[in-house]
């Protein structure tokens, strides 16, 4: 039995593809980026070089975004990769505010709300608008998502993970007015929404304990921004997130050294939002969590370039793009993606909308 | 030349002297690149390798201090680099109503399992890989292509060794079926004939 068990593995081993060795230019580039990331001196020197040319572009981009969402889309689509056109939704749009202050206000506001406990047969409902300036097409080619439009789609996911339904814009020419329901096939490593809820429900709501739980290997003296921010970004969009945990996340974000908050940022739908951004000065990208400025509810997420890697190839103090695209498809590096929630809630049936 | 220090010592030292992390890159980047190249093709692997080490650098304070060898940890980050991208693509496609995964824009993990590997592996083996869940595929390839032990694979995927064994069992069972062999569980101890 043991000998037979080895068959598939042996087969795979012998079929192990021959690959070239790590090309020297790529190796040098990656190493230089790592050195730059590791060297606080080069980082300090690099900051003005990145910031100055893009500071003005950022302000201009903010204005563009503020006018109307449709303009944002056109702007992004016509962006030709030369790096001269202001980037939509720039990381520097909006007015910086005191992050700690705003986020603790946000925590106090959401904390008092009643928690909901979803049943496995209920559905998580989200109406979202999404836009991506690039899309990976067949054979690694790059094309614009949905013909360059922002897409509006309503999605229902059953909490037991068994089914999913949608209505609205799609890329397969399905009738956008009809409700499409499908059974979901789960990977072994994917959890269902109700399992996610169970995990969320037992997380500590004390900010310090929450960080310890989520980032067990981060020493208490080290910066947990990278660890916490990506988790907050994922968990805050959960429609069944317990309000006390939501508040705890805001309180944790309030303490992080590399988080900045800007108000009066226009989102994809043209709404004014607060943008909570993970901001490392040397980074090419900025990830942002968008919050409602009055209710402090989750509104969406955004990923923007803070500098143009095509115009300024990674050198001292700069990290290369973190988006995984072929280095030959330079156009793909002009990435800007945003997904905003227009409505969200828990409903009993697919096709049903939450009563507001 | 790199100092003859263990990976653990290098990483610990890099918490105070970040530039020490470059030695870890010198030590392991060629190997990580080869693994990524096998999975996603050499072009994408260039960016993915850079991404893997930058992520590792940023999260170096999360490296478990109990081990001297950082390879399983790095393989884990490399695997998640592929996986996160795949999941983001899948989520996006679902959100856009693309529930059918067989049409046009395939996520790059599928490119790896399907197209790239299909050219290199031959259709049957590629088809077998395609039928596994992402977690099963990661595990099988970490063992077959990165030569990790069960314990190292468990560390890379951040799951208990028991989970590795049961997942591997399931993966092999599926693989055998897909390759046209009989399912060992239905044969039991009888002759496979």
UniProtKB/TrEMBL annotation, chain A:
Residues 1-16 have a biased composition (Basic and acidic residues). The keyword Transmembrane helix applies. The chain crosses the membrane at residues 53-73. Residues 1-25, 307-330 are annotated as: Disordered. Keywords: Membrane, Transmembrane, Transmembrane helix. This is CU044_5270 family protein. It comes from Actinoallomurus iriomotensis.
UniProtKB/TrEMBL annotation, chain B:
The keyword Oxidoreductase does not apply. InterPro entries: RNA_pol_sigma-70-like, RNA_pol_sigma-70_dom, RNA_pol_sigma70_r2, RNA_pol_sigma70_r4_t2, RNA_pol_sigma_r2, RNA_pol_sigma_r3/r4-like, WH-like_DNA-bd_sf. Gene3D superfamilies: 1.10.1740.10, Winged helix-like DNA-binding domain superfamily/Winged helix DNA-binding domain. GO terms for molecular function: DNA binding; sigma factor activity. GO terms for cellular component: DNA-directed RNA polymerase complex. Residues 125-174 form the RNA polymerase sigma factor 70 region 4 type domain. GO terms for biological process: DNA-templated transcription initiation. Keywords: DNA-directed RNA polymerase, Sigma factor, Transcription, Transcription regulation. Residues 24-92 form the RNA polymerase sigma-70 region domain. Belongs to the sigma-70 factor family. ECF subfamily. This is DNA-directed RNA polymerase sigma-70 factor. The gene is rpoE.
